[in-house]
Amino acid sequence: MWGIAKSLTRIYSTVKKELLQIARRPGAFLSLILGPFLIMALFGAGYSGVRRALDTVLVIPESTSLSREPGYYQDLVGPALRIVDIRSDATSARDDLARQVIDIVVVAPGDLEKTFREGRQSQIGVEYNQIDPVLKAYADFLAYRLAGEVNREILRRAVAEGETYAVRQGVDPQQIAIPPEVVAAPTIAVAQNLAPTSPNVLAFFGPAVFALILQHMAVTLSALSLVRERLSGTFELFRVSPVNGLEILLGKYVGFGIIAAIISAIVTGLLVGVLGIPMLGSPALFGLVIALLVLASLGVGLLISVVSDSERQAVQLSLLVLLGSVFFSGFVLPVQEFRPELQVVSYALPVTHGIRLLQDIMLRGGTVVEWQIWVLALVGAVLFVITGLLLQRSLKRA
Question: Can you list the alpha helix ranges (DSSP code H) found in the chain?
């Protein structure tokens, strides 16, 4: 019995120590509760659960007598598409599609009535520029639905106007028999993806997972570095030594940057050589994006390391950054699906730019969002300055 009592006493002492450590650091305890709650609250407030309408340009040839009223076609296509313009020239619309200014180009047939009377189906061209397999399937579905709505409208107008068409050969030799399938479906939609590749799910999410892992690795490694040195007493040596905060920070960046570069090279080789993910873009641009992503991610980790007072808190904050990155970076949902106010939070995360840029470079051969490269560099520079100031202040306090 005496041995059991001693064992219970030791267990009680351990429990008390852990509870006291948490009680002395209420910020770490609150971050475990408020952090995930805040992330989920922002996600719920920023995403309505309804996919945004795809910006669509309708191309109607000059030779046709079809209406050019946007409201008429908007009622026809429904809320899934948003008619932003009606043009006669398909070339300009395709240029906007290539620059990803719009999402879909719909090319109307120019001889709909003539083709129908000849007993043939007309083709509605639906063109898009997507490497996301989910959005590609969604665009194909919208093309199919669009053809159905157009056919229904054609039949409705034909009945309303009292028009009759020959569905079989008559006495008049000029009369052409119209097949039943053409009467039932005067038009068909032909969908075409103008993207340079149509990757599968693995190829599309490969660069995204790479960017997410790269950020999390850099954040985790750097977040624990200064905390350990502070707890081990190394900061006291820094205080009496001639080294300054800038030199310490640069040393951290270079050291962790070398580790990240080696890991990035190995993972890139596995993605391209083993998984078969294409590398259509410039390797130099690919390397630049990775370098800027690592720079910004190290800034996030070192900022966490400066403000954290324990390894436990540093790990907690790193996990919160990972959780926020999964929700808001475009890894799960496109950034454009969130409300504009919440997109600011998304673009503040380095991995948001890393995912988009790496996917574009590998799967498209280039990117039309060069501004995200500059934003990624700006985020890294701002974090470097803030972390440097806080570190210098912490050294003086030590």
Answer: 2-24, 26-46, 70-77, 90-98, 112-117, 133-160, 180-184, 201-232, 234-240, 245-269, 283-307, 311-328, 340-347, 350-363, 371-397
